[in-house]
Amino acid sequence: MFEQIVFAGGGNRCWWQAGFWEVVAPAIELRPRLIAGVSAGAATACLLYASDTRTALEYYRGALAHNRRNVYPLNAFRAGRRVFPHGTIYRRALTTLLGGRHFDRLLATAPEIRVPYARVPRWLGARSAVAIGLVGYHAEKYVLHALHPRFGRLLGFTSETARVQDCRGADELVDLICASSATPPFTPIEYRDARPAVDGGFVDNVPVDAVDPLGGRTLVLATRRYPRRAPVFVHHGRVYVQPSRKVAAAPWDYTSPADYEATWLQGRGDGEAFLRGLSAVVAEADRWGESVGAAGGAKGAGRAADVAGDAAGGAGGVRGAAGGAGRAAGGEL
């Protein structure tokens, strides 16, 4: 039914995507040809094929049992200790949940998965670019409620994409997802090909440009609320789904695994609601595609007529020139 799926980023809000997928995918036999996921959305997409959500939730309950805070300011004065625990916890979780047999299962069962990450503007240092980019990102998302922000591109952030299937091992996969998720100060700046790489959300947190523009029906799984839009809506022929209300989990809260489960459960409930209205929204998306196709066909027909007219005019000109040459030749003879 959907050939392409887009997993937006959002940190712990992406547990909503996992719950949604687990209800919707089996109900409609969802077997996409292509998936694009950024940041934690990429991690979630991989998790759904490599392992299962309940195992992941249980892992985080154990991993966070002794983490009481999201910031440890005194660690700034302790050698080898981090002020923010997120980077270490996140990388360890990815290694556990996507490594070993899970990595083998992922490669054996998943469709092509593309993971975008961002390159920082060349005219700014990496940390300065991230600081300014975060300000612009939050202004567009929370004030302007932009579905696809533009500030990062205007600032000079560019997007690059890598495929999960090109990773030669679990370590490379973890490095790729960490690069796509790198959001200082919570997680460190990563390096790919000796150049800084940061969260792909600095270019677009809903990475629709990473899928094929003519790749078929596309389902986009957002993780935040866009208050001017319905829970399910069609935009440029793509079907977007967003949480029906603000989810319990905060993006970078590593102290409340119970909120992860609540967010996952909300995703399951929203998935059931999505299934009830699925036929209508798919029909709307198809009508949009047909109208664009018809408009493109009309333009194409117009261009073809222009070309044909130019060709006919050119042929007439050739005939006129030939006739004139013949008459001139006859006069000379």
TrEMBL record:
<feature type="active site" description="Nucleophile">
    <location>
        <position position="39"/>
    </location>
</feature>
<keyword id="KW-0378">Hydrolase</keyword>
<feature type="short sequence motif" description="DGA/G">
    <location>
        <begin position="199"/>
        <end position="201"/>
    </location>
</feature>
<protein>
    <submittedName>
        <fullName>Phospholipase</fullName>
    </submittedName>
</protein>
<dbReference type="GO" id="GO:0016042">
    <property type="term" value="P:lipid catabolic process"/>
</dbReference>
<feature type="active site" description="Proton acceptor">
    <location>
        <position position="199"/>
    </location>
</feature>
<dbReference type="GO" id="GO:0016787">
    <property type="term" value="F:hydrolase activity"/>
</dbReference>
<dbReference type="InterPro" id="IPR016035">
    <property type="entry name" value="Acyl_Trfase/lysoPLipase"/>
</dbReference>
<keyword id="KW-0443">Lipid metabolism</keyword>
<feature type="short sequence motif" description="GXSXG">
    <location>
        <begin position="37"/>
        <end position="41"/>
    </location>
</feature>
<keyword id="KW-0442">Lipid degradation</keyword>
<dbReference type="Pfam" id="PF01734">
    <property type="entry name" value="Patatin"/>
</dbReference>
<feature type="domain" description="PNPLA">
    <location>
        <begin position="5"/>
        <end position="212"/>
    </location>
</feature>
<dbReference type="InterPro" id="IPR002641">
    <property type="entry name" value="PNPLA_dom"/>
</dbReference>
